[in-house]
């Protein structure tokens, strides 16, 4: 199976979701929150898990740290899919970050979950990732 790369803000919602997926520690990588941290550079294929920012607008939906990560060609060439967290209060912009990343990187937007996900979301993502990596 490939790796999971995720970005989580201080709130930790995305991290809580990723933790529930029970991936091995060496297969889960966090995009740094602060610019003072060393950048993450991937060496193997991964699915990206990101929150949606912007409070309901398209502008600012993709966190700047994720944009920086994907602007590195080494990372961008290894992304295989995106999973997005969001807030249904954002209306049409719910999980918009995943739509934007999917279109720009030409990868599938595999799943959308609200805030830190339900047990059903976790089960569906686990099963989906297993099928995805074994096809």
Describe what you observe in this structure.
The chain has 135 residues and is of the alpha/beta class. Helices cover 34% and strands 20% of the residues. The chain has five helices and five strands. The chain has one domain: Flavodoxin domain (Rossmann fold, 3-Layer(aba) Sandwich), CATH 3.40.50. The termini are close together. α4 (96-105) links the parallel β4 and β5 (109-114). The mean pLDDT is 93. It has helices at residues 13-20, 64-71, 73-76, 96-105, 119-134; strands at residues 3-6, 28-30, 46-51, 79-86, 109-114. The protein has a five-stranded parallel beta sheet, sandwiched between helices. The relative contact order is 0.19.
Number of helices: 5
Number of beta-strand segments: 5
- Structural class by SSE content: alpha/beta
Order of strands in the sheet with most strands: 2-1-3-4-5
CATH superfamily: Flavodoxin domain
SSE arrangement, N to C? EHEEHHEHEH
Helix content: 25-40%
CATH fold title: Rossmann fold
Q: What is the strand content?
A: 15-25%
What value does the average pLDDT take?
93
Give the oligomeric state.
single chain
What is the CATH first-level class name?
Alpha Beta
Task: Please specify the SSE layout and strand pairing.
Elements: E1 3-6, H1 13-20, E2 28-30, E3 46-51, H2 64-71, H3 73-76, E4 79-86, H4 96-105, E5 109-114, H5 119-134
Parallel strand pairs: 1-2, 1-3, 3-4, 4-5
Pick out its properties.
Flavoprotein-like_sf; RNR_Ib_NrdI_bac; 5 strands; Rossmann fold; alpha/beta; 5 helices; Protein NrdI; 20% strand
């Amino acid at each position: 199976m490939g790796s999971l790369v995720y970005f989580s803000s201080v709130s930790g919602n995305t991290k809580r979701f990723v933790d529930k997926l029970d991936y091995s520690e060496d297969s889960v990588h966090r995009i740094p929150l602060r610019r003072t941290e060393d950048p993450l550079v991937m060496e193997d294929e991964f699915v990206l898990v990101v929150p949606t920012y912007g409070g309901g607008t398209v502008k600012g939906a993709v966190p700047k740290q994720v944009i920086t990560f994907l602007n590195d060609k080494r990372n961008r060439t290894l992304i295989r899919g995106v999973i997005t967290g969001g807030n249904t209060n954002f209306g049409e912009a719910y999980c918009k970050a995943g739509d934007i990343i999917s279109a720009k990187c030409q990868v599938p937007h595999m799943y959308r979950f609200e805030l830190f996900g339900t047990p059903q979301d976790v089960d569906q993502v686990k099963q989906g990732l297993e099928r995805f990596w074994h096809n």
